[in-house]
Amino acid sequence: MEREEIEQERRRGLLARGTPGSVIYWICYLDETLGRRAWKVSPLGSVIKEQKHLAGVSWEVRANGRHFHQSCRRKSFLCFRWGRYADNVVRSYKYTPLTFLPLNLYEQFQRAANLFFLLIVVLQCVPIIATIPWYSTMLPLLFVLLVRGFKDLATDVGRRRSDVQINQRPCDILTPEGFETVKWKDVRVGDILRIHKDKVIPADLLLLCSTEPHSLCYVETADIDGETNLKFRQALTVTHAELNGESAKQNLGSFDGIVWCEEPNGNLHSFKGELHWKGERHLLDTDHLLLRGTVLRNTDTAYGLAIYTGSDSKILQNCGRLKLKKTRVEILLNKTVLVILLFMLTTTLLLAVGAGLFEYRVSPQYDVVSVLQRDSSSAYLGFLSFWGYIILLSPSMPISLYITFEVIHVVHCFLIGRDVEMYWEDSDSPAQARTTNLNEELGQVGHLLSDKTGTLTQNRLLFRQCFIAGHIYGDIAGEFKPLDLSWNRFSCGGMKFSDQRLVDKLRERSSPECQEFFTALALCHTVMSEWRDGLPHYQAASPDEEALVCAARELGWVFLSRTRETLTISEMGLTRNYQLLAILDFTSKRRRMSVLVRDPGGLLKLYCKGADMVILERLQGDWLLQESTERALELFAQGCLRTLCVAVRSVPETLWTEWSRALSQAGTATGNQDTALEDIYDQMEKDLTLLGVTAIEDRLQEGVPETIASLRRAGVKVWVLTGDKTETAVNVGYACKLMDPDTILIEGEELRQLLESPSPDVHLMSKETEVWTTDRRAEKSKAALVISGPELAELTKTPEWGAKFVALSDQCQSVLCCRVTPAQKAEVVEMVRKHSTSITMAIGDGANDVNMIKTAHIGVGLCGVEGSQAVQNADFALAQFSFLRRLLLVHGHWSYYRICILLRYFLYKTTAFALVHVWYSFYNGFSAQPMYESWFISLYSTMYTSLPIQCVGFFEQDVSAKSCLCWPEIYSIGQKKQLFNPFVVAVTLLYSLYTSIIIFFIPMGILQYSALDFQTLAVTVETSVVLTTTVEVILQTKFWTKWNIAAVIFSLVVFFLSTLALHSTRLFTASPKDYFFLGASPNAFSTPEVWLTIFVTTCIAVLPSITIRALGVVLTNPNKHKIHSSKKESVELQRFRRGTFQRRSSYAVSQGKGFGKLITTGVGLHSAAPPKDGRVTADGLKKESPQGSQREMNGQEEE
């Protein structure tokens, strides 16, 4: 269709009409991909008769073409995949029955220790080199593999169950027999679905039509972008006209349109495609698409065509892959095991060389009895000794550690789940540890990256205060006293506003300023009303507008209905109709909206509301109450309330006539139409008269400010990542104490200049702070970084900027990332991981947070109102953000402390135990003869020394839970890796080397000249090893329970009883080969010399540990002991003296334009309206009880 034809059609009024309040015109756009100009109509759809496709649209969807799509269905087998169209099955699990065994074994044998012990088992099956029985290694290895395998299987089964719950949800699809209810998993591309009100949309759908006027529908995208305010979507005009009506089922069944669109991608805010139907092409965009995971609201029924299903849907494209996470402690442990392995191989090689030299030079000079020496060369005997020492020294590789490691993790997870302090009774939700191998990582978190909506906030906005004519109404400091609103038929309760003075003035009509203020609130908005059961139900593009309109309703100014040209409100029961002349809609650039109306008296008035700084600069030159208004704004800012200014202007008729003509010309402009309209709007929105200021509270979750304050004291950097705009993040940042009141915001061009600085190191000049700390760490600058999604996209593409940004953030209090997509959230987490050494934790409650939860070292999902996908993909699940304080500061710190003590002790006891064989080799001709009895080697790590350290791993506390919360600075122990780092590991291994020397050489030096034999020496060394390691674990224990005492006593009793039993005559008679220490222990334990040797050896072995602890007590600053001795139970958050106040606009939440265009064109407006007599009475409403009205309005609020 050419331009002249379009103009002719438009002039005849057949295509579109424009009114002074309407900006719906034919818009010329340049299609660069086609290289020519095309014409379309916006926003109701477009009709373009061309044959070429848009560039980049290669995804073909045929309506009612299940057979076509089924033939191209995507399939997979093991790692092979083929086909084009995915099914609608969610698969967040990792294993299948076929892949579990090989994949799990592959993951487990990535641990060097497991692979090493598999080699040892193979070597022990060779009799000629086996120095100890094969089962001594095989059984522990099998136990480790089984425990870890069952744990991984249980975790994966939990994910599979969650997937089943989603896949089994019901939905209606169109079949030749009509609509049938099937499961989500049965939906295919090309199916036509029927979605009912309040149901979750199962796939990405092209909206075909709905029961609403003009096929509008309203969706809640909380699970996508975190916002609870409703978004509108609209079907194409052609599908609305052809498919809707009484025969919708038949029309939909015969619908054979073909959709060509872009390939599946994760861009939630972009969609490009076209519908081919009846020889015409109709352009498609995001306004026509219903995304999977959104909820249909305030729309009875909608019909849609499945475009993307399952893993191809946009939200699942943003979820990322399931990643195998390892803690840094475990990574360091694996490296330590490799070092021990290299040391053991080197030592074994040297001992094998010694064995060869001994056989070559020493053995011929002495009558040495050796079976291996006969007819064997020295090199061959050295070769056999090498493998014999490999087996003999294998206990230095702590395989029992991995068993205990798994058990400790499981117990820690159990304790987290059983903590009543993290149980939310309202939803019956305890804390959950869904991954059992990240506990110690909880004690090392350095960066917390948090979602905002639903995570920090409750998604509830409340009208708390207002400023009118020099007076502030509403008291948030004192005790809340509910207002008596029984006189108001439309009141639904729940209003958190307490000031009877304002109600009295409104009822007595003694304050014209107050009346005009609430008239503005009832008129200046884009809220749509729907009458059901005699009451108006509101649909708002922003929760702010809904909060203000509801507040006006509670106080007597009730918005009843609207048409394209009128607004109807009830002012204290009196119905008044206002003529709607124009809506100057909200945009993020304007930060305000206005309505131009003609009141019942014929006067023209412009009501305007918006951000305070925007409105104040448009007031008349010398406006009254300037100082009191500034004080009110500062007072509201001090209470972390979001301010919004309301103003009015009387408009002369001549000005309206000229302005409406200019508006029509701007609407038909073919250039930059948005800029032209903004200029026209500015001409009207000036010389305003201030009516007042509103103060809205963005209700935080319980305990959020205290939690963030504690985490900041603990040294955790808190970042907020949100899909909302900058103002929203800033508002919440101040309210939740993420930033101090006088914090400077660094954003935009200022931030760019810092990042573009040629210096590799950028520093902020910090001011004197009013906050003192108990430690003398470098004080952070009172600044916060604010960055938007487009800026972030540029940042992540430049590695140098990313490194500078992370370094700069370390000098600031916090970072706010606004207007970011789910994919960008994951990119931010990845950037922090790449350019910093700290542990990252991501927390969120919606599907839009899944990707960053998977990307972070630790992912936490909140059981919030936005669905369960975050929980299903998280490592830990909590019901409230405030529980994060206890999870990190208490359980995290304890887990890190316990795990580190456990690892150090295991390295100590296994290495000290195994090195005794090395020292004994110098006395046995390097023959690989074991120092210990074979049964002692098998039982040492499993029976004699395991229970005491397990109890330490279960119950140990360096400080109490109350102290952890009162002094969050203790948490820095884990952040600085003070308890497990290369230096600590090296010291531990040196200490074990010293212990092994003492354990062997002192008994050898004392007993070698006595009449006691080798077996007595072996029993003496064995007893010394057990007592030394037991004394060491006693010294490590600070928090004693009955289980610790019982474990120590039980281990010692078992050692002595089993030693006596294994050396008994009965077992020797039954199997002389396996029980050859006949009577050795009774003989040794009856000799005083042996007991004296054991006592001296044990005392000297633990002397360094006792000395270090004594010096630590003597030399440490005594003030640190106040953590243990103080009885102060809680820390009171101090109030800070405020400096420069940062005002927050209430329009921060609104994501984009409101419903202005829909209103001025009459699209989506219901015909239902209240009675148009002079007064609203009870007779004009549906007869029902007040309780019924209360329930209905409460239900509307919950929706």
Descriptive account of the structure:
- The chain is α+β, with helices and mostly antiparallel strands.
- The chain has 41 helices and 37 strands.
- Helix content is 43%, strand content 17%.
- The protein has a 9-stranded mixed beta sheet with strand order 18-37-36-35-19-31-34-33-32, sandwiched between helices. The protein has a 9-stranded antiparallel beta sheet with strand order 21-20-30-29-28-27-26-25-24, sandwiched between helices. The chain has a 6-stranded antiparallel beta sheet with strand order 7-6-8-17-9-15.
Number of helices: 41
- Average pLDDT, rounded to a whole number, is 80
Largest sheet: 9 strands, mixed
Q: Which strand order do you get reading across the main beta sheet?
A: 18-37-36-35-19-31-34-33-32
Secondary-structure class = alpha+beta
Distance between the termini: 44 Å
- Return residue spans where pLDDT drops below 50 for at least 5 consecutive residues: 1-52, 766-780, 1120-1144, 1146-1151, 1171-1199
Approximately what portion of the residues adopt beta-strand conformation?
15-25%
Which key terms come to mind for this protein?
disordered N terminus, disordered C terminus, 1199 residues, alpha+beta, 41 helices, nine-stranded mixed beta sheet, 17% strand, elongated
What is the fold's blueprint, element by element?
Blueprint: H1 3-12, E1 26-31, E2 36-41, E3 59-62, H2 66-71, E4 75-77, E5 80-82, H3 100-108, H4 112-124, H5 135-167, E6 170-175, E7 178-183, E8 192-196, E9 204-210, E10 216-220, H6 222-225, E11 230-234, H7 237-243, H8 248-253, E12 258-261, E13 273-277, E14 280-284, E15 289-290, E16 295-297, E17 301-308, H9 314-317, H10 328-362, H11 378-392, H12 399-417, E18 432-433, E19 445-450, E20 457-468, E21 471-473, H13 500-508, H14 512-523, E22 528-532, E23 535-539, H15 543-554, E24 557-562, E25 566-571, E26 574-584, E27 592-598, E28 604-610, H16 612-616, H17 626-638, E29 642-650, H18 653-667, H19 673-684, E30 689-700, H20 704-713, E31 717-721, H21 726-735, E32 744-747, H22 748-755, E33 783-788, H23 789-797, H24 799-809, E34 814-818, H25 822-835, E35 839-844, H26 850-855, E36 858-862, H27 869-872, E37 876-878, H28 883-921, H29 934-944, H30 946-955, H31 961-966, H32 972-975, H33 982-1007, H34 1014-1036, H35 1042-1062, H36 1065-1070, H37 1080-1085, H38 1088-1115, H39 1122-1125, H40 1156-1160, H41 1186-1198
Parallel strand pairs: 19-31, 19-35, 31-34, 32-33, 33-34, 35-36, 36-37
Antiparallel strand pairs: 1-2, 3-12, 4-5, 6-7, 6-8, 8-17, 9-15, 9-17, 10-11, 10-16, 12-13, 13-14, 18-37, 20-21, 20-30, 22-23, 24-25, 25-26, 26-27, 27-28, 28-29, 29-30
Helix pairs in contact: 3-5, 4-5, 5-12, 10-11, 10-28, 12-28, 12-30, 14-15, 18-19, 20-28, 23-25, 24-25, 28-30, 28-33, 28-34, 29-35, 30-35, 33-34, 33-38, 34-38
